[in-house]
Amino acid sequence: MVRPTQKKQIPNLQQAIKDVAWKHIAKHGAPALSLRAIARELKITAPAIYNYFPNRDALVTALIIDAYTSFGDSQLAARDAAPPEDLTGRMNAIGLAYRQWALKYPQRYQLIFGTPIPGYHAPLMEVLPSAARSLSALVSVIEQLRLAGKLNVKSFPKVQAEYKGGFEMWKKYGGEADILSLTVAMLIWARVHGIVSLEIAGNLPPLGTSGDDLYLYEMKSLNQQFIKE
Amino acid sequence: MVRPTQKKQIPNLQQAIKDVAWKHIAKHGAPALSLRAIARELKITAPAIYNYFPNRDALVTALIIDAYTSFGDSQLAARDAAPPEDLTGRMNAIGLAYRQWALKYPQRYQLIFGTPIPGYHAPLMEVLPSAARSLSALVSVIEQLRLAGKLNVKSFPKVQAEYKGGFEMWKKYGGEADILSLTVAMLIWARVHGIVSLEIAGNLPPLGTSGDDLYLYEMKSLNQQFIKE
DNA sequence: CCTTATAACTAAACGCCGTATATTTATTAA
DNA sequence: TTAATAAATATACGGCGTTTAGTTATAAGG
Q1: Which of A20, A80, B170, B206 has its CA 20 to 30 A from that of B154?
Q2: What's chain A look like in SS3?
Q3: Which residues numbered 60-99 in B keep a CB inside 8 Å of some CB on A?
């Protein structure tokens, strides 16, 4: 006859599962994520989790979307902390926030941009909205630089037809922007990701405070290369 | 009394295990690596592998060292294919070879520079020799550029004391070079790694042939920024 | 030639894991 | 009060890395 609502000892079990998952990821790394371990900590049985996530990959996808959202919040907040007319100031704020977020949540960063879960591949259609949003801060500033005629892209490689299509989804969720701006954003993203991912993975020698200096140097390089004046 | 040597149906089982491991990694990705699956394919039992590797991590370490060696061979071959006096030509050859190797062996690239194995962390002391050698091609060319006075590093961040120590091991295995050259090499490495890792992980929109153009653009940027004349 | 030490293997088991199936429990509308 | 059903448990399967104990084949020493 009816359709009961939800009750429970734990009020919002769906959220509690994600919370415990993040706690385990922070402590033992993403690859160590285990439904059974989560269930143990919540004092439920492992199959109970399947009422909230159809399988482990779905949980991981939910975590990735949350991580993208957290990352995107940080990016947008950094952008909006600088006055709208100070475009280079916004650029720098975004760049600094990128690394700071990554150093604060290295496991989340690797969850998003690495491939730390055995056999897991993120379903593009589910993840893309939050992913594109997280990069929209950078894209929007570059687009405004372009509109202001401050984007220095004289010798930029010509964008080819086959390559334009790949950006359509990005534009849909990341905000309307010229494909040139999207491409420049991608290049900038690749540069900061290069340093940050090596740093987080421990593939660079211990940099100490010089890590900051090197990162700032790269940000200055980007400014000089891509921004006029 | 005695100490038997080795026999067996499979002559060099240690190598055969690694061969099958690479086959599985190429086909299903590094995270899917399984001792039992390797054993099945070799028609032995899983514990037999423990005669050749004390545990799965040791096998992974051996694979990583092999991958670094393959990668380093490719880098050194690219360097030596250009005449010794053509330093910018050698730089470009190394840069192109970097991406080509990564695109040819994406799973190996992720095995080295990603963190694809659950709970695995590479033992630095074992891996560093082959790792440093793989970057020695780039380092050597930059060092020669520096010695020739062609390295443009006016505004380069000052290297701090605490940070010098981290490079000692690198220098030991990667060839003697000024710390300035090592730092520039690191920065260049971070840039190419940024693009290549995003590309391999599928985090960039499909670039088609524009992938080549963008990569070449970044290589040109590096040339213009760091090399005089 | 035959014993004996031992490297290299197999058999079996342990405790993990994700997940499917069947069953029980608790809630709630009719 | 009853019937429907969401949400949990109980149980089980096959996979994993790894440990332990036992077997087999080899080769040197007497």
Answers
A1: B170
A2: CCCCCCCCCCCCHHHHHHHHHHHHHHHHCHHHCCHHHHHHHHCCCHHHHHHCCCCHHHHHHHHHHHHHHHHHHHHHHHHHHCCCCCHHHHHHHHHHHHHHHHHHCHHHHHHHHCCCCCCCCCCHHHHHHHHHHHHHHHHHHHHHHHHCCCECCCCCCCCCHHHHHHHHHHHHHHCCCCHHHHHHHHHHHHHHHHHHHHHHHCCCCCCCCHHHHHHHHHHHHHHHHHECC
A3: none
Class of domain B9-53: mainly alpha
Residues present in chain A in total:
229
A186: closest CA of chain B, how far (Å): 8
Could you tell me the distance in Å between the CA of residue A40 and the C1' of nucleotide C21?
21
Task: Determine the Cα–Cα distance for residues B17 and B25; give it in Å rounded to an integer.
Answer: 12
- Tell me how close the Cα of A83 comes to any Cα of chain B, in angstroms: 28
The CATH number, out of the four listed (3.20.20.220, 1.10.357.10, 3.30.200.20, 3.40.50.300), of the domain defined by the range A57-226: 1.10.357.10
Half-sphere exposure of A76 (CA within 13 A, CB side): 15
Where do the structural domains in chain A lie, given as residue ranges? 10-53, 57-226
The Cα of B107 is separated from the nearest Cα of chain A by a number of Å equal to: 11
Regions in chain A scoring below 50 on pLDDT: 1-5
CB-nearest partner of A205 from B167, B195, B203: B167
Say if the Cβ atoms of A193 and B189 lie within 8 Å. Answer: no
At the topology level, CATH places domain A10-53 in Arc Repressor Mutant, subunit A (1.10.10)
| pLDDT for B1 | 42
Strand partners, B151: B227
Cα-only R_g, chain B: 20
| β-pair partners for A151 | A227
Contact yes or no for B157 and A213 at CB 8 A: yes
Q: Under CATH, which architecture does the B64-226 domain have?
A: Orthogonal Bundle (1.10)
- Within 8 A of B201 by CB-CB distance, chain A residues are 113-115
Query: Per residue in A21-43, pLDDT tens?
Result: 999 999 988 888 999 999 999 99
Chain B residue at shortest CA distance from A29? B119
Q: Which tens digits make up the pLDDT trace of B132-186?
A: 999 999 999 999 999 999 999 888 877 666 667 667 777 788 888 888 999 999 9
